[in-house]
Each structure stands twice: as structure tokens, then as C-alpha cells.
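Worked example

This section walks through a single chain of length 363. The input is the sequence exactly as stored; nothing has been trimmed or padded.
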Amino acid sequence: MRYEKIQALRQSLHRCPERSDQERETIEKLQLFLQEDTTLELHPKDGWFYALHREEDAAQTIAVRADMDAIENSHGQLFHGCGHDGHSAILAGLGLALEGKRLGKNVCLVFQPGEETGTGGKRVCRELFQELRPDFMLGCHNIPGTPLGTVLLRENTFACASMGLSLDVTGQQSHAAYPEQGKNPVFLLSSIVLALPELIDHITHGDPERLLMATVVQMKVGERNFGVSAGTGTLALTLRAYRQEDMEALEKAILEMAQTGCEREGMTWQSSRQDVFPDTVNRPECCARVANILREHNLPTQVLSEPMRWSEDFGWYLQEVPGMYLGLGAGEEQCGLHTDGYEFPDALLEPAINVLETLVRAL
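Given that input, the structure is written out below as C-alpha cells.
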């Protein structure tokens, strides 16, 4: 296979970064590539598509998923700072590698939008499984700081569950000289922030193996008006955990504090969730199966000592069907994901396609 074609595709995708759930030009480029270079069946959907290598009388279907969306850099400009251009190019390259091959199974290549916001995986999972329920699902992500091409494995939690949790509290504005005549939400919101370490410790029982985090991303009370004691306030947190149930327990505890405090102080409140990601969990039996295949084919592997702290909406698929989420080493000198200087390394394209083709054939 000519990897220059895959490299050219990756670089073309890199030049057209698009927001989550707006990946129109990206989809056009990928579909055109597959139409010109493969005989895969293309199945366009609303904002995403899948390509199918179909074999008559095949009793098994393996699905492989890649994401397509971009992020903003520190200057507010869109760029492929997470390497999804590389992921999509790898998946298209897998389609090219399978062209004309007899595998004894169907292979579904899923090009998913909206991974960065957590909106794509759940929707695509639901829609895909209505038409085609795979027997095994594969996903992967490039991991800078690790040896190029090394497959990173971990059973159970590979990537954390996370969510954005916002609290909006309404009290009563008053003159700053008479704050007792109003109801300022700052004290309630501050008490929640200060209570977070104790809430976390209570849920995890101090177990260092049960990562549970609450990061304050915004706290805003009133405006910069020195004659006014504020009557409204917002607290925005990112909750993150190795285990989904721990994150949900922390959310419940925070909401109970808000409810109790507002009832006591005579204020009202509402909450909302954003960017909700499940934990991405590899079943031990699936991990063992994949590890054995990689070992039999002498492909380099490394077992991660702890889960990735970032989140990945591939977890929605793994809640429904057996599967495996992998890391792919992007090079020890490669700068970190989501940093301004990051770009997916083209040197990873060939080993990544080889890994996926090996697994698709052997599973």
C-alpha cells in the first residue's frame, strides 16, 4: 500500500479543522478518498458516515471507529490539536489496506463527529446499532510522550468519566452598605468549593486508586459594582473520576448541598450538565484477547499503570458491545495533546494501520 496517499489525506484534513458536529468538509474529503480508492459501501448519515467491507455469508462484523473534530488553540483558532485528522486518515488507510481482501467477516469503519464535546459517540452508537450491531468494536487514540507505534493497553478503566456541572443560584441583590438586606449567593457557592476535598474523601474513603476530582473552572458572583451586594452567582466545575459511579456520587453530594443551602437561605437554584463522558472501560477478557493477538504478531505493547485522566466518548460503544480502546504511541519527543505546537506525526500512520489490520483479521 502507498502510505504517501494516506499521508496526503492526513495533511489535507489537517488544513480543514472543523468544530464538533460541523465536520462537513472533513466528511466530504474522506468520502471522496474512499470512493476513489476503495470499493467499500458508503453509508452517509446526518453529520457522520460509515464505510462497510461486506462479505457474503459473513457471520461476524468488526467495527473500528475514528473521530473527526478539531479544537481551538490558545488564540481561538481551530486546529487539529488532538490528532483526529490522523485518526480519520488511519481509518481510511485501513479501508485501503483491506481492499480486495477476503477476511471471512464484515468490517465497518465508523467516522464519528463531536468527540471533543461528548455529543457524537452516544448518538452515533445509538444510530449505528439500529442498523448494524458489531460483534467487536475497536477504537484508538494517539498518545504523545510514548514510543512511536507502541500499543498501549489497559484493562478496566482506560480513560476517565467526566462532566461539566454548572450551578446557578439566585438570591436577592441589595446595597453593598446593607448586605444583610439581601441574599448573596457567594457564601453558599464558596462553602461548596471548600467542602469539595471532604466530599471526595468521603466517597473514595481516601483510596488513592480511586481518582476523583472536582476542578473549579468558573466562579462568578454579581458584577464589579462596588455599591451592590450581588444577588446571582454561578459555579462551574469539571468532575472527573476513574469510576463513573464515583463521579455520579460526587455530583449528587454537590447538588444536595446546593438544595439544602438554598432552602436555608431562601434562594433558588438550578443545575445543568455539559460535556458528559462515560468512563471508557476495557473488559478484562477483551483486553486479554487483543494482547494475545498483538503478542503473536510481535507488535510492541505497553501496559498503562493507570488510566488516562482525559475522557473519551468511545465508552458509550463499550457499554453496548464487547470491544477495546487502545493507545498508540505518538513519539517520546512529541508535544502534548491540545497544546499549540501539536500535530499528529505522519510516521505513526503506517504502524497504526498495521496494528488495526492485524486485529481486524485476527479477532
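What to look for: The radius of gyration is 23 Å.
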